Amino acid sequence: MSTSIKIRNLIKRFGNVVAVNNVSLTVEPGHFLTLLGPSGCGKTTLLRCLAGLEDPDGGEIYIGDKLVFSHDQGISLPPGKRDLGLVFQNYALWPHMTVQQNMTFALEIQKQPKGEIETRAREALAEVQMTGYADRYPREMSGGQQQRIALARMLAYRPKVFLMDEPLSNLDARLRMDMRAEIKHLHHVSGATTVYVTHDQVEALTMSTQIAVMREGVLQQLDTPDRVYHFPANLFVADFIGNPKVNLLEGVVDGDHSVNLGSFRIAVDTHGSTGDVIVAVRPEDVVISTTPVSGAVEFAAYSVLPAGADSTIIAQRQETEITARVMGISTISLDDKIWLSFDPRTLNLYEKASGNMIVSGEGTI
Ligand code: ATP
Predict the structure, then answer these.
(1) 80 backbone dihedrals φ, ψ, rounded to 5°
(2) How far, in Å, is the centroid of ligand 1 from the Cα of 165?
(3) 121-178 per-position pLDDT tens digit
(4) Which of 160, 178, 322, 337 has CA atoms 20 to 30 A from the CA of 354?
């Protein structure tokens, strides 16, 4: 039942701005792809092109085997012919209609049989745990409940593809977390191929099977959440994903297995590269000891920030500052001497000039 999406060399311009710049990507059937990137990077425009709400300036889009857009062939199917379900930021529930009417409206236009409409609406409401709300108006429900109804409406419509643009951005932090779990479960149950837009990296990491990171209209990396997090293709992706942020340490290659970071060296396979490089290490991968350890480098604890489940430690050595993260409440005090060590498998090496990865912790790429 689920279907693939293929985007080939898609271009969309607004005047001088190239909002989508030659993007090609494939979403395999049943996958949950998140378009992730900072404000203005072209995520919404790409989603709107998929939906048929924008007319691209180049490229092709297939939904399943159906060519829904081709610039060269002059094909552009309207949204209604693309078999999509859309959920946008503002829910877009009709305010003058009850939940039931909101749910059944599109199905009635489709001329589905009455019994079928009733069944689908009932099942979809149960799916989002909103049974019993059919007679309410949107104004009689909380933002989160309205959001669930918007999702239920999409489920009842049973499209082959779900498209969602920041559907959780209006919700408070707690509800957002609940809804993440909800959407992930709904995706699991429905198996529908999903494209989801967000600038929130946690949303992307927690819900997706694939993440496409974008910057200024250009696709930077398309990969699993695990790989985008652990092996970012370039410094932009490395820096955008992760909280606290990844440590990016500037240095100079100093032989085959060493980078000189100024006041100390770090052991990493430099794989024949030369010149200025950046060593990237995630805060949770920095190993801290409160006593001297062979091979570890002495730092001072500049700041210690316990946050219940984990603590963030800012370590300083001359000009170098490194953020480390440890589980639980740290017993380290400010200005304590601490010793940091680095597992080469957790280090990624980037060329400073291009920002591209030279060597990943898992070996040469
Ligand atoms: P956000 O997270 O803020 O929604 P986004 O990544 O979704 O950002 P888009 O909304 O796709 O980004 O915008 C990409 C670029 O295209 C931006 O520079 C934006 O200003 C521009 N743009 C988008 N829509 C239009 C439009 N209708 N007219 C002119 N420029 C537009």
Answers:
(1) -65, -20
(2) 13
(3) 999 898 888 899 999 999 999 887 888 888 888 888 888 899 999 888 767 788 788 8
(4) 322
- For 51, the token pair is 């939906």
CB atoms within 10 A of CB 311: 19
Strand partners, 259: 253, 266
Residue 83 has pLDDT above 90, yes or no: no
| Ligand 1 atom closest to residue 44's alpha carbon, by position in its atom list | 7
Indicate the pTM of the whole model: 0.90
Count of positions (residues) in the chain: 365
Cα–Cα dist 115/131, whole Å: 17
- Taking the C-alpha atoms of residue 98 and residue 102, their distance in angstroms, rounded to an integer, is 6
Q: Sign of dihedral through CA atoms 359, 362, 228, 303?
A: negative
Ligand 1 binding pocket mutation candidate from 12, 14, 21, 201 (most atoms within 8 A of CB): 14
Distance CA 185, CA 328 (A): 29
CA–CA separation, 198 vs 274, rounded Å? 37
The string of pLDDT tens digits covering residues 20-77 is 999 999 999 999 999 999 999 999 999 999 999 999 999 999 999 999 999 999 999 9
- Cα–Cα–Cα angle for 314, 215, 195, rounded to 5 degrees: 105
- Residue 15 vs residues 19, 46, 87, 218: alpha-carbon distances, Å: 10, 16, 28, 17
- C-alpha R_g of the chain: 24
Residues with Cβ within 8 Å of 160's Cβ and at least 6 positions away in sequence, in order, are 1, 2, 3, 63, 64, 83, 84, 192, 193
Give residue 25's region: left, alpha or beta (phi > 0; psi -120 to 50): beta
